[in-house]
Specification:
By secondary structure, the chain is α+β, with helices and mostly antiparallel strands. The protein has three helices and eight strands. The N terminus is likely disordered.
Length: 153
Amino acid sequence: MVLDTHESETERHGNFLVAGVGHRGTEVDEAALWASLDDYAEDLEEHAVGTDHYAVMFDVDADSGEFTYVAGREVDSADDLSPELTVVEIPQATYAVLRPEYETVDEMVLTIHEEDLDYDDEDVHTPIFERYETRHDPSTVSDREIYVPVRDD
């Protein structure tokens, strides 16, 4: 099993915005996407809340395998941001905090969406996100925490 959902802890989280560089497809070149975020560093710094970085995965099409991936920062507002940036709202919800082992983002996103999390609400549509306390090195796959919505609050 790639995900350990039976022993996962849960946290209430959300009610914030992430702005960053987005990509839609079946594969993500994380290194390139995170590097392109540097082009917007000044714009994001003006609106950033804290120093954390986020990867947000949402809008998964189970048939095609396509999903949207955004590498970015938490911001206080989407006003006055560059129109090239993608803004995603992370709603308040209860999230399972998972520490999966996977080789690629594509594998992780599809595995999480196919996994039976054994929680009550099957209609949770909140994005999945990763949070990094320091600048993310996309060449590593260790020490990732994935926040998967399990219940709307």
